[in-house]
Amino acid sequence: MTPKVDKRVWSKTQNVVVSANIFAKLPLEKLAVLLDNSDYTPETFPGLIYKVEDEKFSFNKASYLLFSSGRVICTGTKSIKHARSAVHHVIEDLKEVGIEITKKPEIKVQNMVASGSVGGRLNLNEIVFLFDNTEYEPEQFPGLVYKLKGEEVLQNITFLLFGTGKIVITGAKSEKQIKDSVKFLRAQLIDVGELEK
């Protein structure tokens, strides 16, 4: 018999940030001229900002920070697969304007942000006193910030919890971590009587 799935409990990745080493020095001033949708203002920021806005790609809202060292930060994709594709896309763009890149890039997930729901309303005024590592100032912001500490696999996860039961998850490095963190949070809320099973 298949376990019952509560459709009110869910998570969906909204943004993936990856860093990549493309093993090539990048002449940022030259690239600012050659790449459309790029901005380079070294007086205010040491990297070149480059945006892809092409509807034919699944990562059509990807933005990049390119650094002269060959380090690339990519944000704006909704999956690790799309983030990897976006890095390979920027490498192709760089090759097209004469940058020699011969090595395979080293790509590392830095952060994933997801939205979701724990499946029921939450009393944030109670939760702030029941959980450690929380911040809640409703006159400043309607969400409660809850940082997981001491949970080895989930230790970098931070939640924003809202009274509606909606949540935002940051600090994850994989889809599995996102799903596991929602299960963990839900179990904690049930344990302290803030959610029904």
Defining traits:
single chain, 197 residues, alpha+beta, TATA-Binding Protein, 10-stranded antiparallel β-sheet, 4 helices, elongated
At the fold tier of CATH, the topology name of the largest domain is: TATA-Binding Protein
Please indicate the percent range of residues in DSSP E strands (runs of 2 or more). Answer: 25-35%
Which CATH architecture of the largest domain is right?
2-Layer Sandwich
Major sheet: 10 strands, antiparallel
- Into which percent range does the helicity of residues fall? 10-25%
Report on this structure.
- The protein is built from four helices and ten strands.
- A hairpin with a 7-residue loop joins strand 2 and strand 3 (48-51).
- With 197 residues, the chain is an alpha+beta fold.
- The chain folds into two domains: 16-110, TATA-Binding Protein, CATH 3.30.310; 119-191, TATA-Binding Protein (2-Layer Sandwich), CATH 3.30.310.
List strands and helices in order, with pairings:
Elements: E1 9-21, H1 28-34, E2 38-40, E3 48-51, E4 63-66, E5 71-77, H2 80-96, E6 106-118, H3 124-130, E7 134-135, E8 144-147, E9 158-161, E10 166-172, H4 175-191
Antiparallel strand pairs: 1-5, 1-6, 2-3, 3-4, 4-5, 6-10, 7-8, 8-9, 9-10
Structure summary:
The protein has 4 helices and 10 strands.
